[in-house]
Amino acid sequence: MARPAVLVLSVLALGLAGCGSRTDVLGPPSVSLPPAAPSSAAPAGGPEEAVTQWVTAVLQEDYQKACKLMAASAPPGTDVEKECSSGDARSTLSSMHEAWAKPGIKLPPQGQVEVAKTAPSGDTATVSDDAVSVDGHTLHDLMLIGASGDGVSGVHITLKLERHDGTWAVSGFDLG
User: Fold this and answer.
1) How far apart are the first and last CA of the chain?
2) 3-class SS of residue 174
3) Higher model confidence: residue 31 or residue 161?
């Protein structure tokens, strides 16, 4: 049964709260984690590498890793294991997997995750769902497969990234 993309994205906005200690839900739906010291789970490289590793973990259903990659920006003292083991975190990341993993699309490691060049603004950056592709298909296009309802084509996810001590990590996302 096809689910509207809006429903899938609403579930994502509510569920990712379990992956961190703060959610921003005023105005457009938004989810983010507070900045903190880098973690060994944080990917090396630029914002593109951070997005590639995070999307790959979600698509490989390695939700613990995906959450820990995001939690790299959690404040010191945060019980990352507990946060990333929560049902909310797993549910949200599972919903993202369902929104992006479609029949006939090769997932990592067979299918490649590619991210367009990103222009950071200081220690922050954003990456739109149409700037990330899996097996040649953008995340935006993958979300629309099987979706129905008014306005679903206008629904987008923008990933938010932060750099701490030179290390980039996905810190949340905005739905719009």
Assistant:
1) 24
2) strand
3) 161
Rounded CA separation 163/147 (Å): 34
DSSP 8-state secondary structure symbol assigned to residue 121: B
Could you give the angle at the alpha carbon of 97 between the alpha carbons of 4 and 148, nearest 5°? 15
Cβ atoms within 10 A of the Cβ of 147, count? Answer: 19
Closest CA to 88 of 73, 108, 70: 70
3-state class of 166 per DSSP? Answer: coil
Q: Which residues pair with 65 in a beta bridge?
A: none
Interatomic CA distance for residues 77 and 96, integer angstroms: 27
- Reply yes or no on whether the pLDDT at 40 is more than 80: no
Q: What is the pTM of this model?
A: 0.76
What are 92-143's pLDDT values in tens digits? 899 999 999 999 999 999 999 999 999 999 999 999 999 999 999 999 999 9
